[in-house]
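Checklist before submission:
- one chain only
- standard amino acids only
- sequence pasted in full

Submission:
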Amino acid sequence: MRIDVVIELIIPDNTAFTVLTALRHLGYAELQAVDRAEHIILTTDENAQPSELVAHLAQAEVVFNPNKHRLSYSVENGATSTEPAELEALVSDKDGDNSRLVRLLTTTFGMSGVRDIERAVGWRLRDTHGPASRERLEWACRELLANRISQRYDIRPRPHAASVRETAAGPTKGGR
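Returned file contents:
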């Protein structure tokens, strides 16, 4: 099973603002907004409980700080929305080795069942006509968002995600 965990800033995102400015200077004059999110895509055992794993991840301040982040998740082939999905560009490193993070999360934070992790940055663009088209996102990736030598990108519909609210009674480190 694959779980796409999305971590978004709830404070102003200077990187997204810089990208907005740069893409406008590169010719995308009608660009109005840029949203950026970190994606942590967990590959898990089939019997893993997504909500439990995500609750543990919400306690792992090495990837999530509740004072500045919002966390949501979707399960691959999970719930879908009846509304047309907004497109997003997912940019990831070609040679990303996340084995140390897998070990840390499975041992220190009790996330048993996690087999692999992929990390990516998700970009959503909106212009005067609404969400950016596939062509605009591909252009932005070629021009600025992805380094063709060391990164790859995928334009995809943004998954319907469940929001996570951190609770004081959530799991603790090591499942204690």
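Reviewer check: The CA atoms of residues 83 and 160 lie 10 Å apart.
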